[in-house]
Design goal:
The complex is a heterodimer of chains A (308) and B (431). By secondary structure, chain A is α/β, with parallel strands linked by helices. Chain A has 9 helices and 13 strands. In chain A, the strands form 3 sheets. A 6-stranded mixed beta sheet of chain A has the order 5-6-7-3-8-9, sandwiched between helices. Chain B has a 4-stranded mixed beta sheet, with helices on both faces. Chain B starts with a helix and ends with a helix. Classes of the chains: A alpha/beta (308), B mainly alpha (431).
Chain lengths: 308, 431
Amino acid sequence: MPPAIRLESVSKRFNGVAAVDALTLDVPDGSIYGFIGPNGSGKTTTLRMIMRILLPDQGRIEVLGSAGTAAARDRVSYLPEERGLYKKMTVRRLLRYYGQLKGRTVAELDPVIDEWMARLGMQEWGDKVIEALSKGMSQKVQFVGAVISKPDLLILDEPFSGLDPVNAESLKDAVLEIRRRGTTVVFSTHDMATAERMCDRIFMIFRGRKVLDGTLADIQAQYGYDTIRLRTADGAAVLAGVPGVEAVNDYGQLQEVRVSDPQGFLKALASKTAVHQFEIMRPSLHDIFVRIARPEGDGVGMPSAGTE
Amino acid sequence: MKNKALIVAISEFTTLVRSKAFIVGLLMMPIFSGVAIGVQKFTKDATDVKDRRFAVVDRTGTLFAPLKAAADEWNAGVRAAVPQTAPLYLPSEVTLDANDAQGLAALSDRVRKEEIYAFVEIPATALDPASTEPLRYYSNHPAYRTLPGWITGTVNREIVNRRFRDAAVDRALVSRLTRRVEMSELGLLQRDTSGAIKAAAPIDKIRTVAIPVGMMMILLFSVMSGAPQLLNSVIEEKMSRISEVLIGSVTPFELMMGKLAGSVAVSLLLAGVYVVGGLIVANHFGYGDVVRGTDIGWLLLFLLMASFMFGSVFITIGAACSDLKDAQGMMPPAMLLLMLPWLTWFAVLNAPDSPMAMGLSFFPTATPFLMLLRIMLPPGPPVWQIAVSVAITALATVVMVYAAGKIFRTGLLMQGKAATFGEMWRWVRTS
């Protein structure tokens, strides 16, 4: 099965600055594919090029097997980061409009609209004007607007941002349902926990270049078991001065520590304080992200060459 | 599967006709016309009826009496009318020596204190036909013309009568001998199918002027009600990032054409309402035959061209800007193009066959309005002028839509500062 999206050496520059630099990736058909990266790294530019909103300066993009600009347009739906809804339109009218622009008729759309509105608890909103809705409600409307045309590829730019846990959960369930129905889902997110839980594959872009691409297990395997999750009687303060500590993430009640010699570290720590929890593990996606993207690191946390 | 531009057009049309702005636009013309007529009627009857006391320094010594008699006659007429619709004129004679500056200054003070409204000086040489010395009217209400006009007319009538009398010439005979032969303006005689000659009909200003101007105004109002909304629509879509969602589904050109078509449909609807309403009113007053079917055809053609042309301009401005403030800065050149017919139609009305009228009706942004006016003013322009102006305007419309498409495609997703005219020109020139 050809990939849902294929990028080959795609580059895009703005005023001489490379927003995307020689990017190559394949998004497997039917997968949930996560795009992560710090602000300004090129995620949204990449998504816009996939959507043909922007055209690349170099390289080739194939979407659903087609490199043409219009061929797959009706089979791909897009949810931009900043919600695009007509404030004065009613919910149902707006959903019909967006669906019709994807080539569907009103007769085809109405039952699907009803189904999704019921699924997301929006049954009474059909006649409400968009500007009367809360942010979470608007995001649900936008999501429904993107899925009612039953796309083969769904691209979501930060779909969970600003949502409370309840709404985020219902949207997450909706994404999983979409994937179960055969749609390939690509979403960008800053929520590493969600990316870890939902994505079949994760791609990270940093300063316009790909730095990670694979399953979570593949990515974590590149870093080995170099992270200790621990809880002590004295908290993070006791870690100062313990030899072998490369980095500390302090979560208050527990810490995640990167060490080169876990056994040596345990011995040194146990001599200073009571250790209640000591778990050797692979780094979390959050930790990997920070290692790569932190300003003072300048990408030093990237996996070593030959491991991508 | 429906054409996507058509889907956009239907949505744009539906949104616009449901908006308050459309309802206001629909009612604007009849309300505006009604208010204008009503205000004129009201203000015509609502004149200032305050008494006008004025002093007369009659250096001839003989003209005050007839002036006073004329004032008495005037006042009798004013008092007889109920309600009073004009002021009473109350002259009083003041005797001053020649060059009595102090006396004139004292009269000026009385005007300032509002004891009198004005004063007039009749020179001693007023009755001399060779004299060029004028009457002098002093006041601090220079905008009020009725009193000085009445004084001038009354004094001159008496002076001319005296001159004729002194010359032993019968004024009435002179009036008869110098009576003007008036001219009545007629159309042309017609021959009917049997060869019989139909008499020429008198020129009716409503038929020949009011209705052509009315049709031009309908065209202007219809275009102005539809096209500028496109600017707001494009900016709203940019600011709300709706354009990103739309471009994921339609091409920029489809989106632009859909928006233009929706706007044209609104203008057509408005024009239709105005024309039908106008025809009903015209028919009621016996002018239902003035507007020919071909005139409606020309109106539709010019409406289409003007709507696409001006719609393209406003779409371009919206695409080049990211907020309304920037758009307002770009508006003046566009408004100048739109106002050109508004500023020049009267000159074209007075001389529809002049070189200026011809030249203006070849200028693309003015052609739809001014050529429609010229077509409806008898006898109408030569066919070649109509053909050339339509061809030029059609070409200009295509060029403007093409340029707008290029600018729209690039500017639609642009955020931040507005594009300069140089940048827009570059977008048009590059593929």
